[in-house]
Amino acid sequence: MIKSTIRKDDYRAIYRFLDRVSPVGFDCGTLCSCACCGTPEDENWEEEMGIYLLPGEDKVHDRNDGWLKWSEESTDEFEFPSSWNGKVFFVRCKDAPDCPREKRPIQCRTYPLSPHFLDEGHLVLIWNTEEVPYKCPLIEENMKLNTDFIHATYTVWKHLVRDPLILDLVETESVKREKKSCIIQVVYDPMRPDLYE
Predict the structure, then answer these.
(1) Which residues are CB-neighbours of 166 under 8 A, at least 6 positions away?
(2) What is the pTM of this model?
């Protein structure tokens, strides 16, 4: 497994911090029947729904816990940064959408936002533009998200990118979006606090 500078206690603190916030004032899964947690209904979608853990994030999960299906994926087979050498963990929820919410991985907790670097390493949050077999109403309808959720998500990613591997990941994903000419809609920019009021 690739090694991270982020310790188990740091990940636990991040989880507790994100436990206090939610994208909206209700369970957003009620808008889409928890589409981001389930099995894709699109018959043209060949991949099983799941998410990879960030480097070192596996330390806060018990592989014998039973609610996740684990696999190890080679970083050579996917578009991971060149600094990611070895294996990464890919997890799938066995009982979606009835997962233990307090154990969800970081990228589940911060969805529908993604970290993105603008010019000269300026970190912002954008709507997640990853290709998936469902439509997220929060993104599709450009719904207003809770300010505390946005600020907590930014704080977490600002901390996470101090790790060289996670920094490389966010930089790689940012460049990939730019090259694909993806629509990049900034949700939060600390240099423009009035952007999302």
Answers:
(1) 4, 6, 54, 55, 160
(2) 0.88
